[in-house]
Specification:
The structure holds 2 protein chains of 2 kinds.
Chain A (H helix, E strand, L loop, with lengths): L1 H5 L1 E8 L3 H9 L1 H4 L7 E4 L6 E5 L2 H5 L5 E11 L3 E8 L3 H4 L4 E9 L5 E8 L4 H6 L12 H15 L6
Antiparallel strand pairs in A: 1-7, 2-3, 3-4, 4-5, 5-6, 6-7
Chain B lengths: L1 E2 L11 H9 L2 H12 L5 H6 L5 H13 L3 E6 L2 E6 L2 H33 L3
Antiparallel strand pairs in B: 1-2, 2-3
Helix pairs in contact in B: 1-4
The chains are: A alpha+beta, B mainly alpha.
Chain lengths: 164, 121
C-alpha cells in the first residue's frame, strides 16, 4: 500500500467554473488546444475507449511524434470523474515504460467553485514520474501538471491562457 | 480511494496569503521536503523525522492542508499525505515570473543605453 502511495502523484487546483466547463476543457480538442501544451485530444469516452493526444504543428517541428500520448478510458463519469491510462510516446525511452494511470476528479463546491484533482499513478514509469511534476521552464516542456492546471484555471476564469 | 475535501473560503484571506503563511515556517518547509522526496506518507512517518509532538506535527499539516499544499487521501485505515505543488506554481507564475521579466527588461534597456553611448556621435 505504501509503495503504491509512493508512486502516486497528486495535483489539485480550485477553479471558478462549472463541472461541465471543466470536463469539456479536459476532453474536447477545441479546448485542449487552448491551454497547456496545446495538444488536441481525441477521447472515446466509453470504458475501453481510446485516448489520443495529437502533437501540434509546433511540437512536430520539434521532432515529436504525431501520436504524442496514447491511452485507454477505464472509467468515465461526466462531468465528475475520468480514469484512463496515459502513455507518452515522446521518445523511445518513455514509450518503453509502463502505461501510467491518470484520474481526473471534479468536485463542485459552494459559490461556483470546483476542486479539480489529478491523481497520477506512475508505477513502473520513472521517466514520466520525473517529468510530470514540472518545475522547469514550461516553454521547454518542463511545466508538468502544475503548469497545465494553472493554465487551465487561467483559461476558464479569464478566457485567456497564461501563455497566450 | 476517497477524497478529503475540506476547503473553506474566507473572503478576507486570499489563497496566496495562505500559501505564503504556510511556507514561512521551517518545520512546514521540512514537511514539504519530506513529501517531495517520497509522497503519500502517513502522519507516523512524517512525525518520525521531527522532534515534535504528534499534535504539533498535526497542527503544521493542517496549515499546509488549508493552503492546498498538502492533500490527504484515505487508503484503508491509513490517511496518506500528498504534496500538491500547484499553489507554488501559481505563486511562481503570479509573482516570480513577473519580476524576473522586469529585471530582464531593465537589463536589456541598460544594454541598449550603454551601446548607444559607445557609438561615436
Amino acid at each position: 500500500m505504501t509503495d503504491k502511495a509512493a508512486t502516486t502523484q497528486l495535483y489539485r487546483i480550485v477553479i471558478k467554473a462549472s463541472p461541465q466547463a471543466i470536463w469539456d476543457a479536459i476532453t474536447k480538442p477545441e479546448w485542449t488546444e487552448r491551454y497547456g501544451y496545446g495538444a488536441r485530444v481525441n477521447y472515446d469516452l466509453r470504458t475501453g475507449g481510446r485516448y489520443l493526444a495529437k502533437a501540434s504543428a509546433e511540437m512536430r517541428s520539434m521532432g515529436l511524434p504525431d501520436e504524442l500520448i496514447v491511452g485507454e478510458v477505464i472509467e468515465s463519469d461526466p462531468p465528475h470523474k475520468l480514469v484512463q491510462t496515459w502513455h507518452p510516446l515522446f521518445n523511445a525511452a518513455t514509450a518503453a515504460e509502463a502505461h501510467t494511470r491518470l484520474t481526473y476528479e471534479i468536485q463542485e463546491n459552494q459559490g461556483g467553485l470546483c476542486t479539480v484533482t489529478i491523481t497520477h499513478d506512475v508505477a513502473g514509469a520513472p521517466l514520466v514520474a520525473g517529468m510530470v511534476p514540472g518545475g522547469n521552464d514550461p516553454a521547454k516542456g518542463g511545466g508538468g501538471w502544475p503548469w497545465v492546471l494553472s493554465d487551465l484555471k487561467s483559461l476558464l476564469e479569464t478566457g485567456k491562457a497564461m501563455a497566450a | 480511494m476517497t477524497g478529503d475535501y475540506t476547503v473553506t473560503y474566507c473572503p478576507d484571506v486570499t489563497d496566496d496569503d495562505r500559501v505564503f503563511k504556510a511556507l514561512a515556517d521551517p518545520t512546514r518547509r521540512f514537511l514539504l521536503d519530506l513529501l517531495f522526496q517520497r509522497d503519500g506518507r502517513t502522519l507516523k512517518e512524517l512525525e518520525s523525522g521531527l522532534e515534535m509532538t504528534r499534535f504539533g506535527v498535526m497542527k503544521h499539516l493542517r496549515i499546509l492542508e488549508d493552503a492546498g499544499l498538502v492533500v490527504t487521501r484515505r487508503s484503508g485505515r491509513e490517511k496518506l499525505h500528498f504534496l500538491n505543488a500547484v499553489p507554488i506554481r501559481m505563486i511562481h507564475d503570479r509573482w516570480i515570473d513577473k519580476y524576473r521579466e522586469r529585471e530582464v527588461a531593465a537589463l536589456v534597456a541598460l544594454k541598449t543605453d550603454l551601446e548607444k553611448k559607445d557609438r561615436p556621435s
